[in-house]
Design goal:
The chain has 189 residues and is of the alpha/beta class. It has a single domain (4-188), classed as Pyruvate-ferredoxin Oxidoreductase, domain 3. The protein has helices at 16-29, 77-82, 103-106, 116-122, 132-139, 145-154, 161-171, 174-188, and strands at 4-11, 33-36, 40-41, 48-56, 69-74, 87-96, 126-130. Strands 1, 2, 3, 4, 5, 6 and 7 form a seven-stranded mixed β-sheet that branches. Helix 5 (132-139) crosses helix 6 (145-154), helix 5 (132-139) crosses helix 8 (174-188) and helix 6 crosses helix 8.
Length: 189
């Protein structure tokens, strides 16, 4: 059982911790030992956040070292670019193409780098890009971007869809379950 390392990055309030819990539950259902980090960063102020999910036969630490992530799941493309040094050489950046202005742009300290993904692709980074915001709206709420992206990430694992649906049932409030199931399926494509 090979260890799998997933970094989930975004902006505070986007649901990175919920996404990590869903992913962690799916790994557990499939016999993996799982470690999930706490949120690092200014999660309640719209700042940059990162969570780690590590799964394998036996995992001792939730921390993913530089250059060890198999996947980076990025809720905002600039956050994907910010943490790209965490990705393995053959790793994949699964990212939302939507843009959320970071504090430095909001305050006028710098301009939003709209060409970030193009630069990463030109540098040889494998990217899987999707407009998660549009799909989340189609599912019923902009807040479902995290579940759309978990659906997109699920394409890289051979876990049954029932496991993902059960994980959603265990982590999402019943009132929002149907919308999140739709978001997952739209993300998976």
């Amino acid at each position: 059982m090979k260890t799998c390392n997933v970094m989930i990055v975004g902006v505070g309030g986007q649901g990175t911790l919920l996404a990590s819990r869903i992913l962690g539950r799916v790994f557990l259902k499939n016999g993996y030992d799982v470690k999930i980090s706490e949120v690092h960063g200014m999660s309640q102020r719209g700042g940059s956040v990162v969570t780690y999910v590590r799964a394998g036969e036996k995992v001792y630490s939730p921390i993913i070292e530089k250059g060890e992530a198999d996947y980076i799941l990025s809720f905002e493309k600039i956050e994907g670019a910010r943490y790209i040094n965490g990705l393995k050489k053959d790793g994949i950046l699964v990212t939302n193409t939507g843009e959320t202005d970071p504090m430095t742009v909001i305050t006028g300290a710098c301009e939003y780098p709209h060409d970030a993904l193009e630069k990463l692709t030109a540098a040889g980074v494998k990217t899987d890009e999707t407009d998660a915001l549009t799909l989340a709206r189609e599912a019923g709420s902009e807040k479902a971007v995290n579940v759309v992206l978990i659906g997109r990430l699920s394409r890289y694992f051979e876990f049954p869809e029932e496991d993902w649906m059960e994980a959603l049932c265990e982590t999402v409030k019943p009132a929002f379950l149907e919308m999140n199931q739709k978001a997952f399926r739209l993300g998976k494509g």
